[in-house]
Design brief:
This protein is of the alpha/beta class. Helices cover 49% and strands 11% of the residues. It has helices spanning 15-24, 42-45, 67-75, 90-109, 111-118, 125-146, 159-168, 170-173, 183-193, 196-205, 222-226; strands spanning 4-9, 27-34, 55-57, 63-65, 215-219. The structure holds glutathione.
């Protein structure tokens, strides 16, 4: 069976998993999940009881949740391409550390800002200030880690860059820092914008005509996935 990625719109962090699948080149399907309506629904909670995207129905029919787990699962199929590394190698440790930084410090820096967007009203100024300081700190730390390298781990793209592409754009929604003041991050971001897989993921999210450079087979509805026989 072809894997199915459940991706969230708008602006989901699942964007990175779409890019990862495209870079891998393996056949896969996508299932579009509207947030917050569908992602919180009883139907989707049969896929992910936590009510979050991404989730991956793997080739063997198991459901895998959490970006870190999904990216590492996909990474095991992208070692020959240099997208990830064998567990036990120093490359794996570096990739895992970078993914963990992105999935915790960088991702969570935006949490106060998402909260203010979802709960508009008075009393948000302190949260915005807090979010701004977290986002600036995470950007400064990642800028130092990048330290002139072309990609997060060195001279070639890995799944960390795929994941970064999905969450770095959140400053478009929350313009609390100007990425241009972090020149290495800005260069990396621009390089990713020119990547066919990133362009494809963007087009898919925005329901524009999208040309896969990888193995995208098509969309499937949540109701049809839920009718599939259990693994
Ligand atoms: N730790 C999770 C976090 C996933 C997460 O928070 N996903 C968001 C989208 S980026 C979501 O699905 N939110 C549900 C909602 O908006 O109700 C992971 O990285 O997989």
């Amino acid at each position: 069976m072809q894997p199915i990625l459940f991706y969230g719109v708008p602006e989901g962090c699942s964007f990175g998993s779409i890019v990862a699948l495209e870079w891998l080149g393996i056949p896969y399907r996508l299932c579009r999940i509207a947030m917050p309506e569908v992602v919180q629904s009883e139907a989707y909670r049969r896929i992910n009881p936590v009510g979050e995207t991404p989730a991956l129905l793997t080739g063997s029919g198991a459901v895998l949740t959490e970006s870190m787990a999904i990216l590492n699962h996909l990474g095991s199929q992208g070692i020959a391409q240099g997208l990830a590394f064998a567990q036990g190698s120093s490359g794996f440790d570096r990739l895992n550390a970078m993914l963990a930084f992105l999935n915790t410090s960088f991702f969570n820096a935006f949490s106060p800002l998402w909260h203010t967007l979802e709960h508009p009203g008075e009393g948000n100024a302190a949260l915005v200030a807090y979010g701004r300081s977290l986002v600036a700190k995470a950007h400064a730390e990642l800028e130092a880690m990048l330290d002139g390298k072309d990609w997060l781990l060195g001279d070639r793209p890995t799944l960390a860059d795929a994941y970064f592409a999905g969450i770095a754009r959140w400053t478009d929604v929350h313009p609390v820092v100007d990425r241009r003041t972090y020149p290495c991050l800005q260069r990396l971001f621009q390089r990713l914008q020119d990547d066919p897989a990133v362009r494809f993921a963007y087009a898919v999210e925005h329901e524009q005509s999208a040309r896969s450079a990888g193995g995208f087979v098509g969309h499937v509805d949540l109701t049809d996935v839920l009718r599939l026989p259990p693994a």
